[in-house]
Amino acid sequence: AAVNFGQYGYAGFPANRPTHCRRFVPEEGTAGYAEFVRDPDGYFLAMLPDRFTSTLGLALIEVLSRHTSEEVYLGQRASQEWTDDGEVRRLFAGFREDLLEAERKITTRNASDGLKNRRGPARIPYTLLFPDTSNLSGEGGITGKGIPNSVSI
C-alpha cells in the first residue's frame, strides 16, 4: 500500500505513463523522426492517449494515491487502549522512535544539495517510503508519503 500513495506525483502527468502512449519515440533517420523534428509539440501531443483514456487513468491514479482521514500510519495506533502489556508498549515506543528517525534522515537527505539523486532535475523530494509517523493531523488527501498500518486501497 505504501507504493500506491506515491503514484500520483509521477503517473498523474500523462506523459510520464509511456504504457499509455500511442506512438514510440522515433529513431533518427526515420520518417517519424523527421516529423518529430518538424513539429515536436504536435508529435508529442499525438503520442498521448485520447482524453477519455487520460481522464480514466488520472481518476484511477488519484483514487489509489489518496489517503483517507482515518488513515493510521506505521508506528501509530488509533487507540491508546490497544494493549495493556507494558513490555509491548515499550517496544512499540522504540519502533516508533526508529520510524521518526527514518523521517528525520529522509528529510535531511532531501535537503542536501550534495545528494542530487534524492530529487532529480524536477527537485521532487523522495517521499515514497517516508513513514509519516509524525503526522497526527488526521487529514487525508494526496501527500505522496505515509506507510499505512495495514493494507489500504
Describe this structure in words.
The protein is mostly helical and 153 residues long. The chain folds into two domains: 4-67, no CATH class; 68-153, no CATH class. The chain is 41% helix and 3% strand. It contains five helices and two strands; from the N terminus they run ααααβαβ. The protein has helices spanning 7-11, 31-38, 40-47, 51-65, 86-111, and strands at 66-67, 141-142. A two-stranded antiparallel ribbon has the order 1-2. The chain is elongated. The model has no long low-confidence stretch (mean pLDDT 85).
SSE topology string: HHHHEHE
| Structural domains: how many | 2
Rg over C-alpha atoms, rounded to the nearest angstrom? 21 Å
Distance separating the two termini: 7 Å
In brief:
This protein is mainly α and 153 residues long. The protein has helices spanning 7-11, 31-38, 40-47, 51-65, 86-111; strands at residues 66-67, 141-142. The protein has a two-stranded antiparallel sheet with strand order 1-2.
